[in-house]
Amino acid sequence: MDIITTHINADFDCLGAMIAARRLYPEAVLVFPGAQERSLRDFILRHPLDDYNVKRVRDLDLTAVTRLILVDVHQSERVGPLGEVARRDGVEVHIYDHHPSGSADLHGTVEEIAAVGSTVTVFCRLFAARGIAPEPEEATMMMLGLYEDTGSLQFVSTTVADYHAAAFLLGHGANLNTVADSLSQELNADQVELLNALLKGRTVLNINGLDITVAQASYPRFVADLANLTHKLKDMEGLDALVVVARLADRIFMVGRSRRAEVSMGEILAEFGGGGHSYAASAAVRELTLVQVLERLPEVLRRHVKPSWQARHLLSYPVKSAPLQSSVAEVREILTRYNINALPVLDGERVVGILTRQIVEKAAHHGLGAVMAAEYMNTDFASVSPETPVAELQELIVERNQRFVPVVEAGRLVGAITRTDLLRHLVSGGRALPLTGPAADLAAVGPIFKRRQILRWLRERLPEHVHKILHELGVVGEELGMGVSAVGGFVRDFLLRLDNLDIDIVVEGDGIAFAQSFAARNRARIKAHPKFGTAVIIFPDGFKIDVATARMEYYLAPGALPTVEHASLKLDLYRRDFTINTLAITLNPGRFGDLIDFFGAQRDLRDRVIRVLHNLSFVEDPTRVYRAVRFEQRLGFRLGAHTETLLRSAVRMGFVERVGGIRLLHELQSVLREADPLPAVRRLAELQLLPYLHRQLTFSARTAELFAGAARALHWHELLYTGQAVQRWEVYFLCLLNALDDAELPALCRHLDLPKRLRQRLLTERGEAHRILQLLERCRSRRREPRASELYRWLLPLSPETLLYLIARAGSDEVRRWLSHFHTHLRGTVPFVDGAGLARLGYPPGPEYREMLALLLEARLDGKVVTREDEEALLRKRFRARRKRTEDTAVPL
Questions:
Q1: Residue 397 has what DSSP assignment?
Q2: Which of 611, 544, 616 is nearest to 580 (CA)?
Q3: pLDDT given at position 446
């Protein structure tokens, strides 16, 4: 049996969604699990649902339910007696909802959940996609739900999709007169009295700079439509955020409404067992009295209400500036070196003007490089304090067109805010960027990476000891007055649900001092690198965490190594290679789990795109072209169109040629260490990047075959559990160089500055390996199986990496069998009798030992001897005369 149901205290959105769901499940029974809101009950009395197969819970055999279709809910505690059915094994659950996941405990085999104004909108999109046309009566009931949950399309939670849904329903005969009559109801006496009590019981709490109104009241009887009363109270008083707490009879009910993105009612009321979305939520509170709820509410608000944004939240520091006496040429050099477009001019510590790149470039163009830049600086500017509200900052930048705003405290420059800083803040809504769209790997995240979700993931997906370490890192940073954040690939992979415990920490302060303090109280040791302000914390179990002082980099020439200076977290993240690597998670207490995204990285994770942060990225560090390909292929992303254009331009203009060979080798090693390096190597060839390793290096079908063969050989080796370490990347490296002649290898070794061991492998061992492979192929063609001792003698000098390369390169299964037989059975063969054994047998030490041991090894390999006794017998047979002569000439004691 199929059942369509919704949450208790059902409203019109529940009804409209249930009616819609029945079009998708025509044999299903409609069941209200509990009471309905008064307006819905009145509507059903006037418009009976006799044609829609509506049943009461008590009239059904719940043991016969095989599929449960939930609309407008996915919390078991909100569907009454059907919650137990939803959790029962063998019951298939389908969910259609418009609320974020939050604390929901139900998950379905089918889930259609979207951050829109009503659940009806979710069904309208499905109907439009599948060509389903609702009947006028159905469209009317669906429109009731849409209009109620979006406030007749006027609530701030209304989306474009809701307007499309309304047009869809109106086009299929929805009756707006019925909708208006059903939603416009006069308040009864109980509701008027309760509304008056709520008006009298209002309190305003200022939480993180925002006013939150809390209205509380007690009433001896249950009063329907508390949500409607909350709407009226909010609209009557013009409130941005309102929480209503009412004791009705012996139950506590809460309703929240918000117009501010900083106040998520869904998160707040989830703490009381309720649910909803950012702008509207509700809860029926159990096990708490009215006084207990009111005592707990301020603390919950403080945790979930985002701060009222001020200039200090957006500013960048330290700020590059120019002294008042600087020349135009000197200012131009600063702007170019640090890749900035404006800077303040200082007279001591006082900001006296602003210079922009456009003005400085024009002055230089006119031959004024030696003139004091102060002659052309803009002195008509405004500065702000760290406490200046963002609204005032927005007016200054947008309306007064001041693109660079100094932040000044006590007459001293403490930061700066640019037009781009403000734009990023506004686009992100002052919090994490929305995640909507088709990103399959992020589908479970919902519309936003919320702090609560990140906190849950940190607890659930990290080993317990790692989670504790992250907390402790934040505690130490807080005590030292330093900001501490996890950054880079760890955060990126964490959000992509990929395993990665390679944790990098950035400290806004002295990173080495921080690492020393942390290590002292956590029984760890550190390895410091003072030149770079970095350290590695090493725990007793070998676990490591990299710590770096927040820094910025600039390049004196294309392809040169960077020059490093201390900076803020924002500038530290700006020096990263790609936007997806610029995310950070705050670890300091009170902000633990906050996601920091200055550069739209979440958007690029959603769109599965690799993008550089600025247009000169590949020019300043051309090795990034190899990293771009590596991340693109590892993550299954694609290069952004503009990024790929910049990459191809850097290649075409020869910037990669300026990179030292050892740096190219390191990038190639990283590519070849990927789990499957073949796609990345193929992409490097497509982008014309292989010739920078060696001018004759190409990618062919044969190269692809070798990589596939190497992957099989390496997998086979790993399954053997021999304990013999193999450098995977070196096997692939040999495959990549397969087509190069031996004569071309010395130049490659010099260019890449290969270490001596690897140089020897290429210049000597590779040629010998190819000769052995030809020898084995001749044996196969002549149908002669090599003796085991021959295989041992030929192959023992080869490294495991070269042997696996030969297995990948072999042209027949028979040759591969010989090679693998040596690797698995012959390589470790030794005789039972060793040098000490020869002495015990009476053979005096000498050059003959080598001959004897070689004889024993060959006989053992070829199966001529099996036991120690066999070996001793062979020795007596082959070396008997010599032993006798030794005995005859011995001098008695």
A1: I
A2: 611
A3: 32
Query: In the CATH hierarchy, which top-level class contains the domain 694-826?
Result: mainly alpha
616 has pLDDT over 50: yes
Rounded distance between C-alpha atoms, residue 576 and residue 491, angstroms: 13
Residue linked to tokens 């009557």: 236
Residue 37's CB is within 10 A of a number of other CB atoms, namely 20
| 3-state secondary structure at position 547 | strand
How many CA atoms lie within 13 Å of 737's alpha carbon, on the beta-carbon side?
A: 28
Is the confidence at residue 542, as pLDDT, over 60? yes
Taking the C-alpha atoms of residue 269 and residue 446, their distance in angstroms, rounded to an integer, is 18
Instruction: Quickly state the pLDDT bin for 311 (edges 50, 70, 90).
Output: confident
Calculate mean pLDDT across residues 796-823.
93
Query: Domain 311-427 belongs to what topology?
Result: CBS-domain (3.10.580)
510, two tokens: 């002295």
Q: Which of 643, 745, 647, 729 is nearest to 688 (CA)?
A: 647
Strand pairing partners for 353?
345
- 14 Cβ contact list (under 8 Å, min separation 6): 6, 7, 32, 36, 40, 71, 72, 119, 145
- To which CATH superfamily is domain 2-183 assigned? inorganic pyrophosphatase (n-terminal core) (3.90.1640.10)
Helix 357-365 vs helix 328-337: crossing angle, to nearest 10: 130
The 10 Å CB-count burial string (b at 16+, else e) for 595-628 is: bbbbbbbbbbbbbbbbbbbeeebbbbbbbbbbbb
Closest CA to 799 of 842, 746, 761: 761
Please give the single-letter amino acid code of residue 715.
H
Q: What does the domain layout of the chain look like in residue ranges?
A: 2-183, 189-304, 311-427, 444-607, 694-826, 835-888
CB 552 within 8 A of CB 564: yes
- Three-state SS for 495? helix
In sequence order, which ranges of 56-130 are alpha helices (DSSP H)?
82-86, 119-130
CA-to-CA distance for 321 and 152, rounded, in angstroms?
53
Question: Which neighbouring-strand residues pair with 527?
Answer: 536
356: helix, coil or strand? strand
What are the tens digits of pLDDT across the range 831-879? Answer: 999 999 999 888 888 888 999 999 999 999 999 999 999 999 999 888 8
Q: How many CB atoms lie within 10 A of CB 32?
A: 24
- Identify which of 285, 307, 311, 306 has the alpha carbon closest to the alpha carbon of residue 296: 285
CA 28/CA 452 separation, integer angstroms = 36
- What spatial distance separates the first Cα and last Cα of the chain, rounded to whole Å? 104
Considering the domain 444-607, what is its CATH architecture?
2-Layer Sandwich (3.30)
**Using omega within 30 degrees of 0 as the cis cutoff, is the peptide bond preceding 318 cis?**
yes
Over range 31-49, report the average pLDDT: 87
Q: Locate tokens 């920091």: which residue?
A: 596
Topology of domain 189-304, per CATH? Diaminopimelate Epimerase; Chain A, domain 1 (3.10.310)
In the predicted model, what is the mean pLDDT of the chain? 87
Strand 54-55 with 29-31, pairing: parallel
Whether the pLDDT of residue 215 is over 90: the answer is yes
Structure tokens at 336: 């170019």
**Whether the predicted pLDDT of 434 surpasses 60:** no
Joined tokens for residue 794: 């030929």
Q: Is the pLDDT of residue 440 over 70?
A: no
- Phi, psi of 469, rounded to the nearest 5 degrees: -60, -45
* Residue 563 β-bridge partners: 554
* Average pLDDT score over residue span 14-40: 92
- Cα–Cα distance for residue pair 364/78, rounded to 1 Å: 70
What's residue 880's pLDDT? 63
Instruction: Quickly count: other Cβ atoms within 10 Å of residue 772's Cβ.
Output: 19
